[in-house]
Design a protein that fits this description.
Elements: H1 2-21, H2 25-34, E1 47-53, E2 65-69, H3 75-79, E3 87-92, E4 96-100, E5 113-118, E6 124-126, E7 131-135, E8 143-152, E9 157-167, E10 180-183, E11 187-191, E12 204-208, E13 222-226, E14 234-243, E15 249-260, E16 267-272, H4 280-297, E17 301-302, H5 308-312, E18 317-319, H6 343-353, E19 357-364, E20 368-375, E21 390-395, E22 398-399, E23 406-410, E24 416-421, H7 423-435, H8 449-469, H9 471-489, H10 492-495
Parallel strand pairs: 3-9, 10-15, 14-18, 16-17, 16-19
Antiparallel strand pairs: 1-2, 1-4, 4-7, 5-8, 6-7, 8-9, 11-13, 12-14, 14-15, 19-20, 20-21, 22-23, 23-24
């Protein structure tokens, strides 16, 4: 009887345990959810810093930097912006800043990935996974630059906009407006805002244009218009007034639009860069050599450099907004400068003498003749567009001072062994320059494995031929090599040293 009761108790206990296992699914799900934290998106926390260089304690020491924490601008200032942001910092034009999101977190303890992007075309450098560094462009008026931070925890994205309120610096060089060159009848676009910057709605603009110029708007920062069709080169001057929130004029600026007639034949000027160290006769010699070579090739008509002074003083047409008292000499007149240090200077010289294209050359230390070719059309502030700039170079080594068309050929010891005509090399470079192809170095100047192998083989052959013709040198060389071999690897009795002496 006792045994029967024991078996019944055992069976009852087993079924009771199985009953707990087969509870309703709803009850089990409720228990599991009560112990789980709801999933949420990551939270962005961004800090701003101004990066400043430390004073060097000794000359030649490595430059070091410090970070100064920036305080966010209050919410009232953010509400005035057309573009809403999550965080706004104030900085001066030209400052170097850093944004760091290392304090961002996720409540579910998920791993977060960071991705920074510039919404205002400002270049930045990724310092690490969470931080970036960049330099604020120099601006004429107060502007906003945007950066977007994207956080991802594997399930959710968090987008966070950070605005940098840039104020003009005391020595800001950026004026917003850039002089332009266009052909007769072309459409011109001008912007008073730094590239990629967000417009501040508290700033107002007022443009004034000469009669006959129909602006797309007189009060917008970005304007466009079609230049008149003209048979002569002309300069159109536009004025801009920038006003603050209370209507007071903050700054004034102007822009010159040079219009070149489409009926005008293309004429290039020859312009040497950085010629201060060269004698005037040398500069004239190079100009004459290039001019004759270019015209013989039929690439483009080249203006005579000796006539530049006369061409620069020829009368030009200037058009100003109504009511402007035209001075005897226009302050916007392109001035020809003999000292030309950049392509922007070369563009200004081309406009001064009535050229449409520029062939700039650079001749340093008689080692190479570097050539640049571009058209002045649609340039801004004299700088040619990089996509339209063509370059070529002619290696000269040491050019003859008497005749530029020849160059001295040197042997391996640097002694002159003859002369060679460089005109074919210059003509080839010009052909590639005007066809848009980049000049390639000579095969002998290329550094590669095949070239190195050929040089080594040639050196071996030259050495063998040398010893064949100079047996006495071969004998002396054999004696020296034999003595060194004995000194290093043996013969200690002859030299009075242990065999392993060089290695002790």
């Amino acid at each position: 009887m006792v045994r029967v009761l024991a078996v019944l108790l055992l069976v009852t206990n087993i079924f009771a345990q199985e009953g707990d296992i087969f509870d309703t699914p709803a009850e089990q799900e409720t228990i599991r959810l009560e112990g789980t934290i709801p999933s949420t998106a990551p939270v962005a926390v961004v800090e701003g810093f101004k990066v400043v260089a430390r004073e060097r304690k000794r000359p030649g020491a490595k430059k070091q930097y410090s970070k100064m924490r920036l305080s966010p601008v209050d919410a009232t200032a953010q509400q005035k912006m057309t573009q809403k942001v999550d965080l706004l910092f104030a900085a001066a034009s030209g400052d170097t800043l850093a944004l760091d999101a290392r304090k961002s977190y996720d409540e579910n303890q998920d791993k977060i990935s960071f991705k920074w992007a510039s919404m205002s075309a400002v270049d930045f450098q990724q310092q690490n996974e969470t931080a970036i560094g960049f330099r604020i462009p120099e601006v004429m008026i107060e502007q906003i630059f945007l950066f977007k931070l994207t956080l991802n925890d594997g399930r959710y994205n968090t987008n966070y906009l950070v605005g940098i309120q840039a104020k003009p610096g005391k020595m800001a060089s950026y004026k917003g407006l850039k002089d332009q060159v266009a052909q007769s009848g072309d459409k011109v676009q001008i912007s008073a805002i730094a590239p990629g910057a967000v417009r501040n709605k508290d700033i107002s603009y007022l443009w004034r244009a000469p009669d006959g110029i129909a602006l797309s708007s007189n009060t917008e920062p970005d304007i466009s218009f079609k230049v008149p069709t003209t048979d002569t080169d002309s300069h159109y001057i536009l004025f801009l007034a920038v006003s603050g929130p209370k209507g007071a004029v903050m700054d004034r600026d102007s822009v010159r639009v040079t219009v070149i007639s489409k009926t005008k034949e293309k004429k290039a000027i020859l312009q040497g860069l950085n010629t201060g160290s060269l004698p005037a006769a040398r500069v004239a010699q190079i100009n004459q050599f290039l001019q004759s070579t270019i015209q013989q090739g039929g690439y483009i008509d080249v203006l005579d450099p000796e006539l530049y002074a006369t061409l620069a003083t020829s009368p030009k047409n200037y058009f100003y907004p109504g009511g402007y008292q035209k001075p005897a000499k226009s302050p916007f007149e392109p001035v020809f400068s003999v000292s030309c240090n950049s392509l922007a200077d070369a563009t200004e010289n081309s406009l001064a003498v009535g050229g449409t294209d520029v062939i700039a050359w650079d001749f340093k230390k008689n080692d190479a003749l570097k050539l640049n070719y571009y058209s002045v059309f649609k340039t801004a502030s004299g700088e040619p567009a990089k996509k339209t700039l063509q370059r070529a170079a002619v290696p000269l080594k040491m050019a003859d001072r008497i005749n530029l068309s020849t160059t001295i050929v040197l042997d391996n010891q640097g002694g002159p062994i003859g002369m060679t005509d460089i005109r074919p090399a210059v003509e080839k470079a010009l052909q590639e320059l005007f066809s848009g192809k980049k000049a390639k170095p000579k095969q002998d100047d290329r550094k590669g494995s095949q070239d190195l192998k050929a040089r080594i083989q040639q050196s071996i052959n030259d050495t063998i031929e040398f010893y064949k013709s100079h047996p006495e040198v071969l004998a002396v060389t054999a004696l020296i090599v034999g003595g060194l071999t004995i000194a290093i690897f043996g013969g200690d009795k002859d030299l009075g040293m242990p065999p392993d002496f060089p290695f002790e």
